[in-house]
Design goal:
Layout: E1 6-12, E2 29-30, E3 33-34, H1 35-43, E4 51-55, H2 59-66, E5 72-75, H3 82-93, E6 99-104, H4 112-124, E7 129-135, E8 144-147, E9 153-157, E10 171-180, H5 181-189, H6 204-211, E11 216-220, H7 233-253, E12 257-258, E13 265-266, E14 271-272, E15 277-278, E16 283-285, E17 289-290, E18 295-296, E19 301-303, E20 306-307, E21 312-313, E22 318-320, E23 323-324, E24 329-330, E25 335-337, E26 341-342, E27 347-355, E28 358-359, E29 364-372, E30 374-376, E31 381-382, E32 387-389, E33 399-401, E34 406-407, E35 412-414, E36 417-419, E37 424-425, E38 430-431, E39 440-441, H8 453-470, H9 486-505
Parallel strand pairs: 1-4, 1-6, 4-5, 7-11, 12-15, 13-16, 14-17, 15-18, 16-19, 17-20, 18-21, 19-22, 20-23, 21-24, 22-25, 23-26, 24-27, 25-27, 26-28, 27-29, 28-30, 29-31, 30-33, 31-34, 32-35, 33-36, 34-37, 35-38, 37-39
Antiparallel strand pairs: 2-3, 6-10, 7-10, 8-9
Helix pairs in contact: 5-6
Bound molecules: uridine-diphosphate-N-acetylglucosamine and calcium ion.
């Protein structure tokens, strides 16, 4: 899809006042990506000579996103309208191309195929401008396409300037155009800010092209939703929804199974292999890569993970920035984060948190554990309630556990510490020293049994209870009104507290 002699210009200097956000409009996200990145990615397959973005609000942040995508930026300061933005773009374009595709940074749903069609049509016709339009049932807020009887375009009229007759026109301007630049430049020089916003409108350029005897065409988008702009929060939500729907449709066509697909949230950059099943309420975010034949069960949220084939993630797991090898199993209710690494067939069960730790092949950590900064050799069994005490208040320390180790339940491993291959740790141990291979480590208080102690205590408690039940209740003194004053109650309370403290200080004669 190479465009001959053509550049792309993206207008992205506006603030997006209607979003009521400190963030520039094109930095808002839909489908998990910034709006501007969607637009750039739609343009890239056209292989234009250059992609130039006109930036203004938060120019530095936007440029930082665009630079790795090979997009050149030019600053428009102050922002005096879309026509002015195009005048600024001229400086960056110089005379190097004959044509330009111009797009707003806030209409991210447009597809490469549609842009290619627009370019092809423009190229083949004698028009100096070709507008991408769309037919909408509710066109309010958008500029309208005014056609002549011969079907060519006479002008674009902004919503605020429409006459009553024009208001019923439902063909809108998408703000996506193909221009023949040597025809456009003289018209831009003639733009005047005679509108409510005192701006230079690119849309006024259409009537000026007409006035200099040029032809303007409009191509009606086959899918009207492709040109949705993100002017308001409601627009953003609608565009986000459209991206999610598009992504799910793409994945299902490629063999991904989904139950209640509308409840599943998948970012645009996510990849999922065929025959993987996604259950209701699953979220796959960021650059998540999921292999083939996996099952991601209900309510699990996976961001920036790499998951090989055949992995099962049971309900309600949160997994971020982690790598799971083939046939690993996780959950329900597990939390894996910050470079957790599960090797083949490793299993992590309920209420287990794994952070910056590697679990070797077929390691099992099935219940109630925290594993942080640990390396665990293959086939080791991590008992219920095992905790790596990795933080000493200042530093995170490593725990290294060998292969085929048996860690008894409720073991605390005080890092830094090493456990050799084949070692055995008794339940309830607090391990503070390294354990050699094949050794048994027991680190807990020795148990003492006192025969009959419990029965004797129960008898004693029974006697006390009987005594208090038979005692005469004390006569209650009706408090005088004064007794309710706050200062008096405080004094009484302090007096009692002082007496109690004194009693406590006195060594008991009975012991
Ligand atoms: C614009 C069109 C309108 C069309 C609609 C489609 C004009 C005057 N109107 O209106 O006909 O129906 O898009 O979405 O063009 N920008 C700059 N510099 C500026 C002003 C804007 O770079 O000085 C950028 C914005 O960041 C934005 C794009 O141009 O990405 C469009 O601007 P916006 O203010 O959103 O125009 P609309 O009112 O939507
Ligand atoms: Ca807009």
């Amino acid at each position: 899809m190479a465009l001959p002699d053509c550049a792309v210009v993206i207008l992205a200097a506006g603030k997006g006042t209607r979003l009521k956000s400190p963030l520039a409009k094109v930095l808002h996200r839909a489908g998990g990506r910034t709006l501007i990145e969607h637009v750039v990615r739609a343009c890239q397959p056209l292989k234009p000579r250059a992609i130039i973005a006109v930036v203004g609000h938060q120019a530095a942040e936007i440029s930082a996103i665009l630079k790795p995508l090979g997009v050149q930026t030019i600053v428009q300061e102050p922002q005096r309208g879309t026509g002015h933005a195009m005048q600024v773009a001229r400086r960056a374009l110089g005379g190097r191309v004959k044509y330009a595709i111009v797009l707003p940074g806030d209409a991210p749903l447009v597809r490469s195929e549609t842009l290619a069609e627009l370019a092809r049509l423009h190229h083949q016709s004698a028009a100096s401008a070709t507008i991408l339009s769309a037919e909408w049932a509710q066109p309010a807020g958008y500029g309208r396409i005014i056609r002549r009887e011969d079907g060519t375009v006479q002008a674009i009229v902004e919503d605020a300037a429409l006459t009553d007759d024009q208001r019923s026109i439902n063909e809108i301007n998408s703000s996506i155009y193909a221009f023949t630049l040597d025809k456009l430049w003289p018209c831009l020089a003639r733009l005047r800010p005679d509108n409510a916003h005192r701006e230079l409108y690119l849309t006024d350029g259409i009537a000026l092209l007409r006035a200099q005897g040029d032809i303007v065409h409009a191509l009606v988008a086959a899918d009207a939703d492709e040109v949705l702009g993100c002017n308001t929060r409601a627009d953003l939500a609608a565009v986000d929804l459209a991206f999610r729907r598009r992504k799910r449709a793409e994945l299902m066509a490629a063999g991904v199974g989904m139950l209640m697909p509308e409840s599943i949230l998948i970012d645009s950059d996510v990849a999922v292999g065929p025959d993987t099943l996604l259950e209701p309420g699953v979220q796959l975010l960021g650059k998540a890569r999921i292999g083939a034949g996996c099952t991601i069960r209900t309510g699990s949220i996976l961001s920036d993970v790499t998951i090989e084939d055949g992995v099962v993630v049971k309900p309600y797991c949160v997994i971020s920035s982690s790598y799971l090898s083939a046939d690993a199993q996780v959950g329900p209710f597990a939390h894996l984060r910050d470079a957790a690494r599960l090797f083949e067939g490793a299993r992590v069960g309920n209420f287990v948190e794994v952070k910056k730790s590697a679990l070797g092949e077929r390691v099992k950590a099935m219940h109630l554990s925290y594993l942080g900064n640990a390396r665990i050799g293959s086939e080791t069994n991590v008992g219920a309630g095992t905790i790596t005490c990795n933080y000493d208040g200042a530093n995170k320390n490593p725990t290294t556990i060998g292969r085929r180790v048996f860690i008894g339940s409720d073991t605390a491993l005080v890092a830094p510490v090493k456990v050799g291959d084949g070692a055995y740790i008794a339940a309830g141990s607090t391990i503070t020293e390294n354990i050699p291979s094949d050794a048994l480590a027991i680190a807990r208080g020795r148990q003492v049994n006192k025969p009959g102690w419990a029965a004797a205590r129960r008898r004693e408690m029974g006697a006390v209870a009987k005594h208090t039940a038979t005692r005469k209740p004390k006569r209650r003194v009706r408090p005088r009104a004064r007794a309710h004053s706050r200062t008096r109650s405080l004094r009484v309370f302090r007096g009692k507290a002082a007496a109690a403290a004194k009693r406590a200080r006195k060594p008991s004669r009975r012991r």
